[in-house]
Amino acid sequence: PIEAPLAMPVELSEVGVPAEALAHPLVEVHRPSAPGAHLPVPDDGRPAWAAEPFECLLFDVAGLTLAVPLVCLGSIYSLAGRELTPLFGQPDWFLGILPSQSGKLNVLDTARWVMPERYRDDLREGLQYVISVQGYEWGLAVHQVSRSLRLHPNEIKWRSQRGQRPWLAGTVIEHMCALLDVEQLAALIAKGKS
């Protein structure tokens, strides 16, 4: 049998992407190490990172405020003046590739993942930032980045039944926003379904 050669990684300079075309992070999210990363969700619905108080980043997608734990984040990139590189044959939730200093970042249409029943194509307009996710080669396209805040696990209404939206860890009661479970979202993305 004939075997195809393995693809070898190449430097971006070999691909011909000029250095000024690379997205530079607006913010490098400095986070403590996540000893509980990649652990299954406990029976009470709390991810391992929620055993103690934790920091979250609030951001907006199509008018919906979402929170994501800082332990799960990489960097925040501005889309101002940047075009995503489209790839044909990708799912409709794939917006394109953002070349960055740390490599090529696959950009996801966050609104299509978190609110598929209310999704409209015009929700792609006005996306301003990409939030990269620690440990993955993808990032979330968002309309606005708000602020970070410290949350105590008791300030969240945790979801123990995650059937329909496994990525929804719970609701931040005071801010009435959805708290994302990035590990569960990553599992869905790997399966390619929302």
Report on the structure:
The protein is mainly β and 194 residues long. It has helices at residues 12-15, 110-114, 182-191, and strands at residues 25-28, 54-61, 64-69, 73-78, 94-100, 103-109, 129-133, 138-142, 144-151, 156-158, 168-172, 177-180. It has one domain (22-31, 48-191): CheA-289, Domain 4 (OB fold (Dihydrolipoamide Acetyltransferase, E2P)). Helices cover 10% and strands 35% of the residues. Strand 2 and strand 3 form a beta hairpin. It is globular, with a radius of gyration of 17 Å.
How would the blueprint of this fold be written?
Blueprint: H1 12-15, E1 25-28, E2 54-61, E3 64-69, E4 73-78, E5 94-100, E6 103-109, H2 110-114, E7 129-133, E8 138-142, E9 144-151, E10 156-158, E11 168-172, E12 177-180, H3 182-191
Parallel strand pairs: 3-12, 6-8
Antiparallel strand pairs: 1-4, 2-3, 2-9, 4-7, 5-6, 7-8, 10-11, 11-12
User: Mean of residue pLDDT?
Assistant: 82
Helix share of residues?
A: under 10%
Report the sheet-strand fraction.
35-45%
What is the count of β-strands? 12
Give the N-to-C terminal Cα separation: 38 Å
Rg over CA atoms, rounded to whole Å, is 17 Å
Structural class of the helices, strands and pairings? Answer: mainly beta
Q: Given the structure, what is the number of helices?
A: 3
- CATH homologous superfamily descriptor: CheA-289, Domain 4
Keywords:
194 residues, mainly beta, OB fold (Dihydrolipoamide Acetyltransferase, E2P), six-stranded mixed beta sheet, 3 helices, 10% helix, globular, disordered N terminus
Summarize the model shown.
This protein is mainly β. The protein has helices at 12-15, 110-114, 182-191, and strands at 25-28, 54-61, 64-69, 73-78, 94-100, 103-109, 129-133, 138-142, 144-151, 156-158, 168-172, 177-180.
